């Protein structure tokens, strides 16, 4: 005999059984959910109601001491970067100011990427907020 029919025989032999009002399956009298269809058969009694406590008592041990700039990026002045870019951007001065030495050297040897990089950077710096972070 398979286990399902054995379980049905055991359940039907007991005096404390009832029928699911949704699928008609024989279930235990104390059952709140049907074991076959999974639907709720009866309401929970007042003393059986589940209380969910969503109070979070965790505390953050990683307190950031740098609250002005929590990202760890360096703050740069938009207008200083613009002036450096506009006047000596062909030599990559604004890239060196931002801390991008590799790009600064590239601008230095290519004349601001043949002037195209200088023009793009001049316009791009104007649209940045002041201060901006690099």
What does this structure look like?
With 134 residues, the protein is mainly α. 40% of the residues lie in helices and 7% in strands. It has helices spanning 3-13, 78-88, 93-98, 101-114, 116-126; strands spanning 17-19, 26-28, 75-76, 132-133. α2 (78-88) packs antiparallel against α5 (116-126) and α4 (101-114) crosses α5. The protein is rod-shaped. The N and C termini lie far apart (73 Å). The model has no long low-confidence stretch (mean pLDDT 80).
Summarize the topology.
Blueprint: H1 3-13, E1 17-19, E2 26-28, E3 75-76, H2 78-88, H3 93-98, H4 101-114, H5 116-126, E4 132-133
Antiparallel strand pairs: 1-2, 3-4
Helix pairs in contact: 2-5, 4-5
**Secondary structure: number of strands:** 4
**Estimated helix fraction:** 25-40%
Low-pLDDT runs: none
How do the strands line up in the largest sheet? 1-2
Q: What oligomeric state is this? A: single chain
Cα end-to-end separation: 73 Å
Q: Which whole number gives the mean pLDDT?
A: 80
The proportion of residues in beta strands is 5-15%
Main attributes?
two-stranded antiparallel sheet; 5 helices; rod-shaped
Task: Summarize the structure in short.
By secondary structure, this protein is mainly α.
């Amino acid at each position: 005999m398979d286990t399902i029919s054995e379980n049905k025989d055991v359940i039907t032999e007991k005096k404390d059984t009832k029928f699911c009002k949704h699928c008609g399956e024989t279930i235990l009298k104390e059952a709140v959910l049907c074991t076959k269809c999974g639907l709720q058969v009866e309401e929970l009694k007042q003393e059986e109601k589940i209380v969910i406590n969503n109070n979070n008592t965790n505390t953050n041990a990683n307190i950031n001491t740098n609250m002005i700039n929590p990202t760890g990026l360096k703050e740069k002045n938009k207008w200083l970067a613009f002036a450096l870019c506009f006047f000596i951007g062909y030599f990559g001065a604004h890239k060196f100011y931002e801390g991008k030495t590799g790009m600064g050297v590239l601008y230095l040897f290519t004349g601001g990427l043949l002037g195209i990089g200088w023009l793009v950077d001049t316009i791009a710096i104007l649209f940045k907020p002041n201060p901006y972070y690099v």
